[in-house]
Design a protein that fits this description.
By secondary structure, the protein is mainly α. Helices cover 71% and strands 0% of the residues. It has two domains: 160 residues, Serine Threonine Protein Phosphatase 5, Tetratricopeptide repeat; 124 residues, no CATH class. It is built from 20 helices and no strands. Helix 3 runs parallel beside helix 5 and helix 11 runs parallel beside helix 13. It starts with 15 loop residues before the first helix and ends in a 6-residue tail after the last helix.
Length: 398
C-alpha cells in the first residue's frame, strides 16, 4: 500500500508551458514494451480517473495508482504517457516510482529519463509535499546505482523529520549489503531494535527482506535474515504486520522452510480474523491471505477466506464494496475458483453502477479496472460494455 501526501504544481494546475516540454520529453523516450494484456482495462480505468473533474485530488490519486499498475504488467511506455497527464505532486512520485521499476527491470537509461521528470516536478513542490517526493527519488537513485545522491537525500530527510529515520537506516543497510559488507548491514539494521516506533520496525523488516535479493547469500544467511525480519515484524501493529508476515511467509516457502511458512499463515489467519468487519482493511487482507493460501496449495482454505470476506462486505459503506468485490474476485481467480471470481466481479460492477453520484461511480470503476488490469487481464466484452455504460452516465450530481 502507498502512503499518499500532496504538493501543488503552480497551485494545482499544469500550465501549457509546463506540459508541452514534459510531453515532448516523454514522447522522446525509447521504450520497447509491447501491448500487454491488461493495458486496455487500465486505459479504461484511466479514462474514468481523468473524468473526475469535480475533485482534482481524487483524479490525481486515481491516475497515480494506475501508473503503478501499468508498470506492474511491464507496460512502461504507457506508464510514461499516463504519468505525464497527472497534475500536482503525484506526477513527481509517479515518475520516481516508475524510474525505480525501470531500473529494476534493467532499463537504466529510461530510468534516468523518468527520474529527470520526477526532479522537474519536485522543483515546483510546496511545503512538506516535496520531501515525500524526495524519498521516492532516493529509492530510484538506489535502484539506478546513484548511491551518493540517494544517501544525501535520505540523510537530509532524516535530519529534518523523524518519520524518515527508519527508512534512512534501512536504505543505508541495503547499500552496505550491496557493497559486500553483510555484517555491517546487519549492525545498521540492529540499531533500530530498541525503537518503539512501529514505522521503524516496518522499515527494519523491509531492510532485512531487501537483503534477500543479494545473490551471494548462502542458505544460513537467508534463514538468519528471515528470522530477524520476523522478530522486527512482530513489533509492527495493524495491517502492516499482516503485510510483513505474508512477505516473510513467501520467502520461507520459496526457501523450502514449510513449517515456518505454515506457522506464519496461521498467525496471519488469526490477525485477519481479529479485524473488525466494519473496515475495508479486512477484505483487502483477506484477499492477500487467500492468495497466500492458494500459492501454498491450500485452495479450500483460500475459498473459505474469500467467502467469509464476501459475507462481511454488507457491513461496509456501499461506496467501498465494488472495489473490495473486485479485489476478492482476483484472489478467487488466483485460487482457481473461476465461477466465484466471475460472480464477485459481477457484484462489483453492479455495485458501481448503483452508486448515486458520479464521483464514487468513477472511483469504483477505476478500482475495478485496476484490480483486473494489474493482474495482466482484460475484461470480457460484456463487462467492458457495462463499464462503458457507467462512463456514459457520468455527470451531475458528482
Amino acid at each position: 500500500m502507498i502512503t499518499n501526501t500532496e504538493f501543488r504544481l503552480r497551485g494545482g494546475r499544469a500550465t501549457a508551458r509546463t506540459l508541452v516540454p514534459l510531453l515532448f520529453l516523454v514522447s522522446a523516450l525509447t521504450l520497447a514494451s509491447p501491448h500487454p494484456e491488461g493495458r486496455d482495462t487500465l486505459d479504461m480505468g484511466f479514462r474514468f480517473a481523468s473524468a473526475i473533474v469535480s475533485d482534482t485530488k481524487d483524479m490525481a490519486r486515481a491516475q497515480q495508482t494506475l501508473v503503478y499498475d501499468y508498470a506492474r504488467i511491464g507496460d512502461y511506455d504507457q506508464a510514461y504517457r499516463q504519468a505525464a497527464r497527472i497534475k500536482g505532486w503525484r506526477r513527481g512520485v509517479a515518475f520516481a516510482r516508475l524510474a525505480e521499476a525501470l531500473a529494476q527491470a534493467g532499463q537504466v537509461v529510461n530510468a534516468r529519463k523518468a527520474l529527470d521528470l520526477a526532479r522537474k516536478a519536485r522543483g515546483e513542490a510546496e511545503g512538506w509535499y516535496g520531501p515525500r517526493v524526495d524519498s521516492y527519488i532516493a529509492d530510484a537513485n538506489v535502484a539506478i546505482g546513484d548511491i551518493n545522491a540517494a544517501e544525501r537525500i535520505m540523510a537530509a530527510l532524516a535530519k529534518a523529520d523523524r518519520q524518515y529515520q527508519g527508512r534512512s537506516v534501512s536504505m543505508s543497510a541495503m547499500i552496505l549489503a550491496r557493497s559486500g559488507t553483510y555484517q555491517e548491514a546487519l549492525t545498521q539494521l540492529a540499531s533500530l531494535d530498541a525503537s518503539k516506533d512501529i514505522y521503524d520496525s516496518w522499515w527494519q523488516t523491509r531492510g532485512y527482506l531487501a537483503m534477500l535479493d543479494l545473490d551471494a547469500l548462502d542458505r544460513d544467511q537467508r534463514k538468519e535474515l528471515l528470522s530477524k525480519a520476523s522478530a522486527a515484524a512482530d513489533r509492527i501493529a495493524g495491517w502492516k504486520k499482516i503485510e510483513a508476515f505474508l512477505s516473510i511467509e513467501k520467502e520461507y516457502r520459496d526457501l523450502g522452510e514449510i513449517e515456518k511458512s505454515e506457522a506464519l499463515l496461521s498467525s496471519v489467519e488469526t490477525l485477519v480474523g481479529a479485524i473488525a468487519p466494519t473496515t475495508g482493511v479486512k477484505a483487502h487482507m483477506s484477499a492477500r491471505l487467500a492468495r497466500a493460501f492458494a500459492e501454498a496449495g491450500h485452495v479450500e482454505r483460500a475459498r473459505e477466506v474469500i467467502l467469509g470476506a464476501r459475507t462481511g462486505l454488507v457491513h461496509l459503506p456501499v461506496i467501498e464494496r465494488p472495489e473490495l468485490s473486485a479485489v476478492l474476485s482476483m484472489a478467487a481467480r488466483e485460487a482457481g475458483e473461476r465461477a466465484l471470481a466471475r460472480e464477485l466481479l459481477g457484484e462489483a460492477l453492479v455495485g458501481a453502477s448503483a452508486l448515486d453520484n458520479a464521483r464514487p461511480r468513477a472511483l469504483a470503476a477505476v478500482a475495478i479496472c485496476g484490480a483486473v488490469g494489474r493482474e495482466g487481464r482484460d475484461l470480457e466484452e460484456a463487462n467492458r460494455d457495462r463499464l462503458v455504460a457507467i462512463f456514459e452516465g457520468l455527470g451531475d450530481p458528482w
